[in-house]
Design goal:
Layout (H helix, E strand, L loop, with lengths): L2 E6 L4 H10 L1 H4 L3 E4 L1 H10 L4 E3 L7 H10 L5 E5 L9 H14 L3 E2 L2 H13 L3 H8 L7
Parallel strand pairs: 1-2, 1-4, 2-3, 4-5
Helix pairs in contact: 1-3, 4-5
């Protein structure tokens, strides 16, 4: 079981909901986290249970970033809207930077999201279990 964050900008929320519907059979076996409205919309349209954080502009991106910084997130699906300026762009860049620092796979569009979900479905994320097992300070 891995920890997956689901984030979508306003004009990408329908895309994220459709993605969650399409891959519900894969996502149901993992711990899901999302920013506020995205998580609500996913739960309204699927049987998935999602731990919701605050809305992205209100700090949700940073809450997820805190889990990334502690290496407690395994995959982030962040469907970004590249054609719309975001008032919390520094938070978004900080989250993506933390993913790079911790080596967390992140998809910023549905095409990459599908590739990562297919990899998850095949079992290609087993390496994350080793990361957790040998993380300093944790008993394994």
């Amino acid at each position: 079981m891995i920890d997956i964050a689901l984030i979508a900008h306003d004009r990408k929320k329908d895309e994220m909901v459709n993605f969650a519907i399409a891959y519900e059979s894969v996502l149901k076996d993992h711990r899901l986290y999302a920013t506020g409205t995205t998580g609500t919309r996913i739960m309204e349209n699927t049987s998935l249970k999602v731990h919701r954080f605050m809305s992205g502009p209100l700090g949700g991106d940073q809450q997820i970033g805190a889990l990334v910084a502690e290496n407690k997130m395994d995959l982030i699906l962040f469907f970004r809207d590249p054609l719309m300026a975001q008032p919390h762009e520094p938070d978004i860049i900080a989250l993506l930077r933390l993913c790079d620092v911790q080596g967390i796979p992140v998809a910023t569009n549905v095409a990459t999201g599908e590739l990562l979900i297919k990899a998850l479905e095949r079992g290609d994320f087993a390496w994350r279990e080793l990361v957790h097992k040998y993380k300093p300070g944790l008993e394994g």
